[in-house]
Amino acid sequence: MSAYLGRRVLGALPMLLGVSVVLFILIHVAPGGPEATLLGGDLNQQDAASLRRSLGLDQPLPVQYARWLGNALRGNLGISYLQGTPVLEVIGEHIGATLQLATGSLALALLVAVPLGIVSATRPNTWVDRGATSVALAGVSFPSFWLGILLILLFAVTLRWLPASGYGDYGAAGGIADHLRHLVLPTLTLASTQIASFLRFTRSSLLEALAQPYVTVARAKGLRSARVLLRHAFRNGLIPLITLLGLSTRFLIGGAVLTETVFAWPGVGRLAVDAVIGRDYPLLLGLNLLIALAVILGNVLTDLLYSLADPRIVWQ
Amino acid sequence: MGRRLTRRQLLAKSGAVGAGLALSAGVPSLLRRTPAAYAASGPGQPKDSLVIGIGGDISFINPVIASDGQSYKVEWPVFDGLVEYDENLGIRPMLAQKWDVSGDGQTYTFHLRPDVVWHDGTPFTADDVAFTFYTMLDPKTHAASRAFFGALAGFAELSNPDHPADPASLPKRPVEVLDPHTVRFNLSFPYAAFLGVLTAPRGSIIPKHALQGQDINTTPFNAKPVGSGAYRVVEWRKGDSITLEAFDRYYGGRPAIRQVIFRVIPDPVVRTQALLTGGVDMLDDPPIDELARLKNDYIVNGIYTPSYEYLGFKLDRPPFNDVRVRQALSYAVDFDAIVHKVLLGYALPATGPIPPTSWAYTPQVNRYEYNPAQAKSLLAEAGFMLGPNGVMQRDGRPLRFGIKGDQSSQSVRDAAVIIQAQLALVGVQADLALLDWPTFVRQLFASDFEAILVGWTGHPDPDPFNYTIWHSSQWNGRNFAHYKNPEVDRLLEEGRRGRDRTTRRAAYVKMQQVLAEDAPYVWGFYQKEMYVYSKRLRGVSLIPAQAALYQSLRKASWQS
User: Fold this and answer.
1) How much is the ipTM here?
2) Nearest-5° Cα angle at B415, B410 to B417
3) What pTM was estimated for this model as a whole?
């Protein structure tokens, strides 16, 4: 396994390098620059030129890239223009909030979608199936910013059960319990966007598996139907779900922008938007590399999980 | 081939995930408790904290390098300047208890308070003042407000990005420390706005002992600053909140409110909901369509600050180099309608570049009430005739131009569409090009536009606000519209050198009248800076400056 993992990690390095080249070019050829944010409305051409020079932006692009890469290889991704602190430090300050939201919503989505998917597959075209599918589709059809505001209206403004927004524990009030209360609504919002696809994949792959000859054989052997379903059919039906899980890592790390904005959640999604608006090149590169890394790790994880679900798949 | 996880291990792991979820999804008993964030603001309970909802995170808590409006709000309670504005834009003492101005108006000597300490307990001295301004003038410092201090002796030499001069080599140094509590500023000309530009927070003082030898642009100080203001920074959770605590040793006395928390809530609707649920006590920049509803239960307060929106033109190119065309466009656009329909009356149609809360403002100027007929007649006078497609043309060329603006601003988007329709009524074809802010700003300062829909936010003193926008020497800076009028140049010089407010006002009144006649912009509107807060909050007041409320935080208290 370690040899396999080693090969995968080594294989990821050229990919990250390629991603960094493309990103570097894209970010720098986009119109505008950091002076609008760093110097504000009191800008003049002399100060703007002086700023660009002090940030090294007057150098040719290959020189800038070589300098960035040299530092990056030594673990230094540069200093964020917007915050004046190292990029890794800035990302470190926000990644925890994003990971909490990502793992919480992913777990909630799976806990809701997989059982519902199994029920739907075993009772296809019944009211249970149609009901589960409709609810899940409704969840994915609501834009997250709108659903988030509706949830705030219901649970925070009307019922007063939960806080409207934020990360919680302000002024050392409430501690971890207060923080967890703040986590509920954004988790629910983000999970609702994922439930439908997990449910549909579970349902369809399980339906397909249930139609296979080995299921008929298992039933003919007199196995209990729960055992046939979970041990034989479901395990084989997991492969498409695992693929979907692997793909969702990118979305969970970088795509929760709207949810984070609505709930004032201090994660990397909002940070990325600020970095784009402020043309914070080092931070943008750092964040995009993080997302690229998440995609690569998600793929490695997917491959590892494949062989767990299907013993015929081996790492070599 | 590697090791495989067994099914039991897999289930054990998924169980752990499930348990984590139960926790993160909220334990039912927790749900029924009132969140601590709003328990403290419940009726009848003693309260010593103030939570303010703001729209975006701040960049740096350092008045020398921060350039954004959000940072301004936090700097105000944390850093003090030598002087500050009062509610009528008069100057009152802060770190300086008094000052003398030389007869020629070129030397200012400040006598500093001896009882001021920094938040780390170090005494404040004149060395801190000198350090602040030499840091500001250093071209390596990303100082957004450097141009405000252009009157300091040796400004050009010290801030030259290619060859910054050593202060010791100058015949006259801009800042001299006379003794630990006396500091002198030397100017290169008698600059009437000098006390104005020294006001907090853009003229606020930073501590030499905490910053000397560090890179001011990247120092950790910018996130954990040491100030001399009424509040000290306790915690900054990036993207989420900034917590300030009353400074016990503040020379002006410890503020009544022990803790001030700025919470970053980007969405204005959610920010309002946080107010309604008690998660915040005050709303900064509330959505104006909610104000009528909030008025019943909260104090809704606003003021005109030095800012205005306008439709501007590239003045040195046809057809905008013809004053008749500019006047025609002024008659053709009905900003009054925009004020009422888009801004719901929380704005005032503008008549010039100085807001009504300034001592230099005059309403006695030529106004362009909405009059499409007058617009058409002026266009005809300028040689334009209606073409076959309904667009005015002169010498076969249609009166058609692009209007650029910031696409992230809802009011710009709304106003742009209305303006486009109004211009079409007089045969002018406007093409909208709304861009993202960094792209737009770069094109602005490169004068790469025909027309722009944008605003200015500036200094309460008319000189730093207007000189760089209207003086013909500033085409490489904020005068990107390329305005040039020798009379306005002269009046701006008079205004910046005038010895008293009466003389200065006379110059600025005349300047507003000339500008109104010249119509270099279609003056848009002065928008009120609005705040909504609890009716139990006492002592806050607004001054006609950007982030108008935050200066008064140190005087705020809760009604018991």
Assistant:
1) 0.83
2) 105
3) 0.86
